[in-house]
TrEMBL record:
One of its GO terms (cellular component) is membrane. InterPro entries: SLC26A/SulP_dom, SLC26A/SulP_fam, STAS_dom, STAS_dom_sf. This is Membrane protein. It is found in: Membrane. It comes from the Bacteria. It comes from Pontibacter korlensis. The keyword ATP-binding does not apply.
Length: 523
């Protein structure tokens, strides 16, 4: 069903959304700075994009839980784009044009592409992101990694790779950072205890916030009494101190309209638009799977929102943005219910630039690494691997191939490899016949019967999902699989997600000869 369900009031969920927004802010802050650093862009440009993504795009978005900002997957495109165009100012023009192209894609309803990613590949992407978060945060947790906080590629800027970096980290542990990381991790895990969650007062305090505050206090104690344990500046958050608009003007750069006549600007813009749109659609599909309420996001609206966001970010001197899976999954894991959480995270990013830079610069990265270690584990739980294995080779092989491909390359390359394997299994299973469904209406009570064909493939998923999304309220829906010899797992999962939330539209669902499958949940 569509995400705009009125049952999810913004005011009613403030007690969950504000703490969640704070948690996402703590994760997003070093990511924005790190991605700027890795992209060779002004340090504040990543924060500008994070602010625009939170304050503006959150309200325009087609998703209640997605969080937008600069993406690690775009760093190479930014580096190459600036080099190709000769200046960051010319690159900003390409970002604005890319946003306009995304706006057009939204009006052309290109968002439907997101429904054609196989469930096994999306789950593989989530599991891979979880593994990468764990592997990449271990060196920061140990206080031994000088690479930017948030780099996700296998081969790293310092010449090491994901695994060799961990080996190096264990030989260069910073004891103070490790101690603070362990205490932070313990606090976050303790705060996840049902006894804490059941306490109305304590439940309002995010475990991550408590861990971050405690980490600052501990490091200040180290500085005052045990200097040998004090965390060095390279392992703390580092935001430029802005004392006025003149400082802000010195830190930011703005687009160069003189580059409109340069054909290369349009090539870079097209590249940004396509890659950012694909990454956004992948993230939205993944976040929908994590959403405990199983709301279906409007992907066309999301493309329009991203387009407007990139146009504004480019005009304000920011990096290109996408919906980012790391922030989105952190948002879900922290208990967010509506888009207010993303807005809160954007608001705090803005405050951190203008009012809180001094305080933010005291946060140890090992404490933030502890937050991401917990998020990573929730995304790649052993139970997920067991459930995929039980589904058979046609689901498990694309799942595991996607994980390995992302782990040893990057997000987009890994997804393409997983998609290729997934399509092979889809075509193998579905070469015989297409599907059809029959709908009956009875005047005495609106009864809608959807009769599935003998062979229902993943290729039919988009059509079925759209049909279920637009079923009328207060109806009795019968989904009949009696004549079906084969129903693809992705279609079964879509039906189960519909059944789980149909009561919110007062729809009664009756399944005939349809196998029950579980739907993904972080909670």
């Amino acid at each position: 069903m569509r995400e705009s369900n009125n049952n999810f009031g913004y005011l009613a969920n403030l007690s969950k959304d504000i703490p969640s927004g704070l948690v996402v802010f703590f994760v997003a802050l070093p990511l924005c700075l790190g991605i700027s650093l890795a992209s060779g862009a002004p340090l504040l440009s990543g924060l500008v994009t994070g602010i625009v993504g939170g304050v503006l795009v959150s309200w325009l978005s087609g998703s209640q839980l997605a969080v937008s900002g600069p993406a690690a997957g775009l760093t190479v495109i930014v580096l190459n784009g600036v080099e190709t165009l000769g200046s960051f100012e010319a690159f900003l023009l390409a970002v604005v044009i890319a946003g306009f192209l995304q706006l057009i894609l939204g009006f052309l309803k290109a968002g439907v592409i997101g429904l054609y990613f196989p469930s096994s590949v999306i789950k593989g992407m989530l599991a891979a992101i979880g593994l990468i978060l764990i592997l990449k945060q271990i060196p920061h947790f140990l206080g031994a990694d000088d690479d930017f906080f948030g780099e996700m590629e296998f081969f790293q800027p310092d010449g090491r790779n994901t695994f060799s970096e961990i080996g190096y980290a264990f030989s260069a542990i910073q004891v103070g950072a490790l101690f603070i990381g362990i205490i932070s991790l313990a606090v976050i895990l303790l705060w996840d205890n049902p006894k804490i969650k059941s306490n109305k007062v304590l439940a309002l305090i995010p475990g991550a916030l408590l861990a971050v505050v405690l980490s600052i206090v501990l490091n200040e104690v180290f500085i005052a009494f045990v200097p040998g344990l004090a965390i060095t500046s390279s392992h703390l958050v580092s935001i430029p101190i802005i004392n006025g608009f003149s400082d802000l003007g010195n830190e930011l750069q703005f687009l160069d309209l003189g580059s409109l006549t340069n054909p290369s600007v349009y090539i870079v813009a097209f590249t940004i638009a396509i890659v950012a749109s694909l990454e956004t659609l992948l993230s939205i599909e993944a976040i929908d799977k994590l959403d405990p309420h199983k709301r279906r996001s409007d992907t066309n609206r999301e493309l329009k929102a991203q387009g407007i966001g990139n146009m504004v970010a480019g005009l304000a001197g920011g990096l290109p943005m996408t919906a980012v899976i790391v922030r989105g999954s952190t948002n879900v894991a922290a208990g967010a219910q509506t888009r207010v959480s993303s807005f809160v995270h954007g608001t705090f990013l803005a405050l951190s630039v203008f009012l809180l830079a001094g305080l933010m610069n005291k946060i140890p990265l090992s404490a933030l690494a502890a937050v991401l270690l917990v998020v990573g584990f929730k995304l790649t739980k052993p139970a997920l691997y067991k459930s995929q294995l039980k589904l058979g080779s046609e689901q498990f092989i694309p799942f595991i191939v996607t994980i390995l491909a992302i782990l040893f390359t990057d997000l987009l390359i890994g997804i393409c490899v997983g998609l290729a394997v997934g399509i092979f299994y889809i075509l193998k299973a579905n070469y015989k016949s297409p599907y059809f469904f029959h709908k009956e209406e009875h005047r005495e009570r609106e009864v809608i019967r959807i009769k599935l064909s003998e062979h229902v493939s993943f290729l039919n998923k988009a059509s079925i999902v759209l049909t279920l999304d637009h079923l009328p309220q207060n109806s009795h829906v019968i989904i009949d699989g009696e004549n079906s010899e084969y129903i693809d797992y992705d279609v079964l999962e879509a039906i189960m997600e519909f059944k789980k939330t149909a009561h919110e539209r007062n729809i009664e669902v009756e399944l005939i000869n349809i196998k029950e499958v579980s739907v993904m949940d972080l909670h």
